[in-house]
Specification:
By secondary structure, this protein is mainly beta.
Length: 285
């Protein structure tokens, strides 16, 4: 039999995430998946899991879990204190948690999202080929709650136990390479200059759907509206308040506000770890 994890403390927002629900955007289904895809892959690599195996993505305050039998876990992504039955253990490398012990992944000391991976992966039932929670559409499992019991898959192999792993530090300033279009012509030349010259900041209203910014408003040429059109991961949409919103993994697949540009997907992992107040600069990409 494989292990089960009982959620002792669910934290502010903890969801099951994997490599995402790809290939269904034409049906109106977002990709979802781990916002920090690099952290997902590294945590799974350390445990011998498939790169996109399901993990728990926590937000700011971590979570606590009790396995019913011994498991090997990694807590990575945003740095945080980690304990087993109150005793400090290593962050960012595999640790063994005995059956009945409580693994507590604490609040972040930097960044936003920590990832709790277990050898064998979180084995909730997949929906459309993915185990990810999608907060916008409601597909996949609901965000975890206290008392939930999560099944664990069969570990592929006994993982190595390295002394350290190359986790990137959360950004102190977020640089987002941007390709203008498809609706850059809806904005004044001054707005286009402002977008790549001004410093914005991450808004506290950011979430898995989009990274919202605070800063100078971008002036439009026309006050008209667009018919709803397709949206891609990394699209920078400008709502009526003029402040750019960078679409993340739970973004809608269509939208009616103009997209001034698209951020390179590889830059979005850092966006997942940019805490409110972090400076944001858009650079020509």
């Amino acid at each position: 039999m494989t292990a089960k994890l009982t959620v002792v403390r669910s934290g502010a927002l903890t969801t099951v995430q994997d490599g995402g629900r790809r290939g269904h955007a034409h049906l109106g289904v977002p990709r979802s998946g781990a916002l920090d895809s690099a952290a997902l892959r590294l945590a799974n690599l350390l445990l011998g899991n498939a790169p996109g195996a399901a993990v728990l993505e926590t937000t700011l305050t971590g979570c606590a879990l009790r396995p019913d039998r011994g498991v090997t876990v990694v807590a990575g992504g945003a740095p945080c204190p980690v304990t087993v039955d109150g005793r400090p253990v290593a962050w960012g490398v595999p640790v063994r948690v005995p059956g009945g012990a409580v693994l507590d992944v604490g609040g972040v000391t930097a960044g936003v999202r920590s990832y709790v991976a277990v050898a064998g992966g979180i084995a909730v039932e997949p929906v459309l080929g993915s185990r990810s929670t999608d907060l916008l559409s409601g597909l996949g499992p609901a965000p975890v709650r206290d008392g939930d019991v999560l099944p664990v898959g069969t570990p592929a192999r006994q993982p190595a136990l390295p002394d350290s792993a190359p986790w990137p530090a959360p950004p102190t300033e977020l640089t987002l390479p941007l390709r203008l279009g498809p609706r850059a012509d809806w904005f004044t030349p001054g707005a286009l200059r402002t977008l790549t010259a001004a410093t914005y900041r991450v808004s506290q209203h950011s979430n898995r759907i989009g990274l919202r910014t605070e800063g100078p408003a971008l002036e439009r040429v026309s006050a008209g509206e667009l018919p709803s059109e397709g949206m891609v991961l990394g699209a920078v949409q400008v709502p009526p308040d003029g402040r750019p919103v960078v679409f993340l993994h739970d973004h809608p697949t269509t939208g009616g506000y103009p997209v001034i540009g698209v951020v390179t997907e590889t830059a979005l992992a850092a966006a997942a770890q940019a805490a409110p107040g972090t400076p944001v600069r858009f650079t020509p990409g």
